[in-house]
Amino acid sequence: MKKILAILSFLFCVNLAYAGLSVDPSVTNISENPGSVYKGKYKVKNTYDKNISVSVEVTKGNSFSANKDADINKWLVFEKYKYFIPAGESVEVPYTVKIDENFKGSISSRVSFSVDKEQGQMISISISVPIYVTVKGTENIDFVIDTLNLYKTGDDISYKMTLENKGNVHIRHSGDIEIYNKKKKKLLKTVFIQETVPTYCEQKRDFGERILACSDLKKGKYVAVFKVRALGKEVTKEIKFKLSKKGKIIIKK
């Protein structure tokens, strides 16, 4: 029989639940000094109408390269790795994070909570949640808008942006898109960029969404200014474009 593993991770939920299992919190962000120790805990609830056993497993996450050789079983330690949870009840799952003196930037892990399969059962339910650790005083926040483009999606104008994180900590960006007339003297519209999934250190990630309808602008030349913010830093990049009579977008060099 084929083993089916269901792993769910919704980053913006306060509580993560699937079938008969829930885990709180769904995302853990820790910021501590080098050499310090952090004590945390998860609340794991059994919403089945039967008793279950849950196993805990840790795996490496997206960490700064200087920390790549760190032994995850030494810096992230759980008191126990198996829990019996009666039907409808919850347990607390304590853990300890040991921030080594040599850690730089960020280090992360994924923690999986899996319901132990019964004999003959085909589906194994597992929830995986991230732990992000930032080492205070060692952060290097450095990111740029690598590429930027505008295009049509039906009757709308959308953007595609590649963000490059050159720093040593992961970022979750937000920001604004300001649409100006061709001489950039009049602000016509501002569109908010909502905070979204992380861009991990030393990696690139693509983002994109609808900005506005073509009908919101008359034919002519415009400038779109992208202002992207994360962890107290802002980077900007602008793109000049023309909207033709037929609603075609022409990027100006």
Protein model, in words:
Helix content is 2%, strand content 58%. It has one helix and 19 strands. The protein has one helix at residues 72-75, and strands at 4-8, 16-18, 21-24, 28-32, 37-46, 52-60, 76-78, 82-85, 90-98, 106-115, 123-135, 143-153, 156-165, 174-181, 187-193, 203-213, 220-230, 233-243, 249-252. The strands form four sheets. Strands 1, 4, 6, 8, 10 and 11 form a six-stranded mixed beta sheet that branches. Strands 2-3-5-9-7 form a five-stranded antiparallel beta sheet. It has a five-stranded antiparallel beta sheet with strand order 15-14-17-18-19, with no helix packed on it. Residues 1-14 have low confidence and may be disordered.
Secondary-structure class: mainly beta
CATH class of the largest domain: Mainly Beta
- Give a quick account of the main beta sheet: strands, pairing sense, barrel closure: 6 strands, mixed
Global mean pLDDT = 90
The outline comes out as elongated
CATH topology name of the largest domain: Immunoglobulin-like
- Estimate the strand proportion: over 45%
Task: Classify the helix fraction into a percent range.
Answer: under 10%
Sequence of secondary-structure elements: EEEEEEHEEEEEEEEEEEEE
- CATH architectural designation of the largest domain: Sandwich
Indicate the radius of gyration in whole angstroms: 23 Å
Number-wise, the strands total: 19
Low-confidence stretches: 1-14
